[in-house]
Amino acid sequence: MSSLRVYIASRLLTAIPMVLILLTVVFVVLRILPGDPVVAIVGGHAPPEVIETLRRRLGLDKPLHLQYLDYLWKLMRGDLGKSLIWGQRPVIDELMERFPATLELSIFSFIIAVLIGIFTGVKSARNFGKPIDHAIRVYGIVTYALFIPWFGMMLQFIFGVYLRWLPISGRADPFMEPERITGLYVLDSILTLDFPALISALRHLVLPSITLGIYISGIFTRIVRSHMIEVLRMDYIRAARARGIPEGRVVYRHALKNAFVPLLTMMGLQFALLLAGAVLTETTFSWPGMGTYLLERILYRDFPAVQGAIVFIAIIIILINLLVDITYAYLDPRIRLR
Amino acid sequence: MSPSPVKKAYIAIAIAILVIAVIGGYYAYIATRPKYREMLVIGTTDRITTLDPAKAYDFYTWEVFQNIGEGLLKYEPGTLKIVPGLAERYEVSEDGKVYTFYLRKGLKFTDGTPFNATVVKWSIDRQFHLRGDPSWLVTEFVDHVEVVDEYTVKFYLRKPVSYFPALVATVPYFPISPKAWPWDEFKDATVGIGPYKIIRWERDVELRLEANPDYYGPKPKTKYIVVRFYKDAPALRLALETGEIDIAWRTLMPTDYVDFKKMSEKYTVVEAPGPYIRYLVLRCNQPPFNDVRLRRAIAAAVDRWRICSDVFLNTTEPLYSMIPKGMWSHKDVFLDKYGEHNITLARKLLTEAGYSETNKLKIELWYTPAHYGPTEADVAALIKDALEETGMIEVTLRSAEWSTYVDYITKGVMPIFLLGWYPDYVDPDDYTTPFLHSKYCWALGVFYNNSRMDSLLEQAMVAPTTEKRAALYEEVQELMADEAPVIPLFQGRLIVVAKKGVEGIVLDATMIFRYYLLYAVA
Amino acid sequence: MARFELTISRHIARFFARRAKWGAEHYITATGAILVSTIIIMAIFAPWIAPYDPIRPVGDPLTPPCREYIFGTDSIGRDVFSRIVYGSRIALQIMILAAMMSLAVGLPLGLISGYVGGPLDRALSLIMDSLYAFPGLILAIAIAYALGPGVINISASIAVIYIPTYFRMIRAEVLSVRESLYVEAAKGLGADTKTILFKYVLPNVLPSVPVVFSLNAADAILTEAGLSFLGLGLPAPTPDWGFDLRSGYLYMPAGYWWIATFSGLMIVLSTLGFSLLGEGINEILNPRLER
Fold this sequence. Notes:
The structure holds three protein chains of three kinds.
Chain A: H1 2-31, H2 37-42, H3 48-58, H4 64-76, H5 91-126, H6 131-145, H7 148-162, H8 185-191, H9 195-232, H10 235-242, H11 247-284, H12 290-299, H13 303-331
Helix pairs in contact in A: 1-13, 5-6, 5-9, 5-11, 6-9, 7-9, 7-11, 8-9, 9-11, 11-12, 11-13, 12-13
Chain B: H1 5-32, E1 39-44, H2 59-68, E2 73-75, E3 82-84, E4 87-92, E5 98-103, H3 117-130, H4 136-139, E6 142-149, E7 152-157, H5 164-168, E8 196-202, E9 206-211, E10 224-229, H6 233-241, E11 247-249, H7 254-262, E12 267-282, H8 292-301, H9 304-311, E13 316-318, H10 333-338, H11 343-352, E14 361-367, H12 376-388, E15 393-399, H13 402-411, E16 416-421, H14 433-436, H15 451-462, H16 466-483, E17 486-499, E18 502-503, E19 519-520
Parallel strand pairs in B: 1-10, 1-11, 14-15, 14-16
Antiparallel strand pairs in B: 2-3, 4-5, 5-7, 6-7, 8-9, 9-10, 11-17, 12-16, 12-17, 13-17, 18-19
Chain C: H1 2-20, H2 24-44, H3 46-49, H4 80-116, H5 118-133, H6 136-147, H7 151-178, H8 181-188, H9 193-205, H10 208-229, H11 241-249, H12 258-285
Helix pairs in contact in C: 2-4, 2-12, 4-5, 4-7, 4-10, 5-7, 6-7, 7-9, 7-10, 8-9, 10-11, 10-12, 11-12
């Protein structure tokens, strides 16, 4: 087990500089911003004292390297700064308010993507070379090209406008939001036994998570397919079949277990894609998550909020990657020894 | 054997009591059953910016304040008549420079702070102190405020403007609770003293209002008003069609309004000419538009009808003066002077200025893509098309999102750009001085300087009678058309779409959407 | 004369015979190639294919597809079909520019890093890994916002996303080639680093480039459309698919479906074309040992 610990330690060591690099990149990129962020906030004809006070409060009067150190120091203490506009709430609070929405969307999209991936991947592998296999392989490529806003809009119009089966925006109907415990509506409504809220939340989740889920699923299809093809040829599978175990169990119980590990790794790598896709999905479905937060704040020139949001995303990504790597190492000892 | 008379009497009484009980019960039931629906939901694509009267200078946030707060004076709904608000009455001094307000007694804000003259003074002083965007409406006109006693307050003005009552009715003059807002900085706070109070606000998601039990005036018929914020017109439209909201207010696409008007059995569409105007601003202190001939050429070449019909499907109408139609003293001066889409005149002016088909006037026309709605790019494209029809102008379209746009305006970066104007106070002065007076028009990127114009405007501000003022404003408009530092394009209409059964929608020239008048029969 | 004809017919026969032996990957590549070439032709011959000027209003607003305007007109009467055709120019321009920029930075960095190794390699790899892990679109949004609109700026924002991919791929190839015999031999013969890189390493690395380029292209189109859709793209009235999708969407509830549908479809088809092409070529060049 010590090799695992060594592995974890070594991964942590690489994770920290990665976070630092991303933080620096964010810092640099956002300071190339044209125009004076201070003037943009207070307006053109504010008296100079007000401008100076704000500039000092934002720390924008210090030289660049001091600002950078200040930025890092604050981050270490979890202080992502205060939003510039309306009431100067701490950015971290605003992000924590929006994060559950994105998380919930991501989880459901992910579940859909994995389910589709497994089902199609297995079907494809079992029917290797046959037309259904080719069709599914094409599916795997096509899904990536389904431009999310367009795909989402088409779904909105078919199911929302013409059929009126499903809602096209928001997370729940007015006044039907569950009491906020975690911020994940489905979970909260189950915990508070609020079934109308549960139904409302689920109905609102359908279209966005299908849009994002299908978009991501292509990669899973391919991974599952290629691993299943390999695994299904292996001896122990032939042995299991010879023992008379029904084909269904052979495939789903014995074979799939082995495809699971690479699937897990892919999960980590796809998370970044998921978040990127989430930005477009949230915009299309007016989903109040971090993606829409980022865009709103960019348009309002709320520079600490934009910075804070990107930093938050960067840290999450690195954390997820770290977790995935460690889990992978735990499940597959060969990795640690590299 | 028939019952004895006594028994008969008992039976009669019993029946009588039963009947009375039933009838009484029925009426009691009717009386306590609400007459009106308890809650109405309004949908909008607007946003609240900052819930601070010292900072907020946008249409929607002012609308919220008009419903949760009140000024010393206010407008009577449906009219432009100014009536007492938080002040029972007022007096004006002989020279028109001192206004004494006698405040209503015994009122308090929703956080318990008592309303009195000190609070009024504090609120005005805070405008002076913080110098936020709307503060000029106070600082330009008021010199200082004096507390006479607990319920009497005097405003000393810098000049005797005749429309001061109209200013007092605007949001920057609203008394606010010193406990809720800090002296030294801008902050969002939800305390008020008006017909509704805010019980919940989730920024960009929802605003929940409840009838304020402490309000001194008539109680709103609808106990709860919920405002839901939608991302764009399709989301808003769908919300109305699925019944998620009862009222859709600002802003659907022109195509949506056309559709709803057709569905008259299910929806009520209330339309009123709005005093909000759209126009082109020309930067008058730098080339190329320091040359008045070029400004006139643009004024001649624009095609307002096309914009109104193609982009807005006639939910807007062409405008030929900065003072909108419906406001007194309005004159179609630009139409009189240039005609409409007068390419011949435009070409003549351009040739005089030295341009031709081989030597084209090259300009950058700026617009902002979201602030005035998603149709803005189309408006800009049609203007470009109209100007290029002269064959002597080459237009490059440029855009900037709103905060950058505002920055560029005051820095004089843009030679010609699109802008809009919602009146702060309803008076021709608000449609002229900000754009035409040299002291103020730089803030709108006009940089125009004409001493005759300045003097006309100043006289009109203080002239004692409406007739005298009207005559002055007519002169102002003539001069404006001749010099064309700004070119009015079109005037918007206010449109509310509501489910059938929603009543109390009053749209007037103040553009204030009063939630406290809304109701729907249960 | 007869021999010439025979050669031709033999070639034709061989062409069809080869087709018969085509596997799925060939069909995929072919479909991709057809889509891609259609778009390239559209872009190059736009002035001849498009019936109208894409920037000027030419008809009544919001007319449905008809004989005069095959894809209908948009909100101010511009021909949607012409805008779609010219939109391909913008899409290709940005895509090529972005891909070139990515390659120009990622290729040399990967070469040097992989070959030189040591702390430089570790540092660069770390930086690239960090960037690679970060969601591309979000990075592009931040950069596009910082730089402002414009073809070059948008291309730069997209280019940054793909630099790590080129870097990693090139570096991996370099690492595998570095230890091979012929490189050792060259070193033994006294060749300097530069010669080794250019004459030996680079030629082996290049075959992988087209595949990445193609997938990069697909990604670039999606990212550019995404940026335009979010309002961070090129200014109006430039015919841009992402922009038209966004503005067309607003008219859909009222029944005017053609603006959004066709622009969106073009985005999907072009991304699909490049993806198929890339995947197909990848399969052909590096066939997976599946049998």
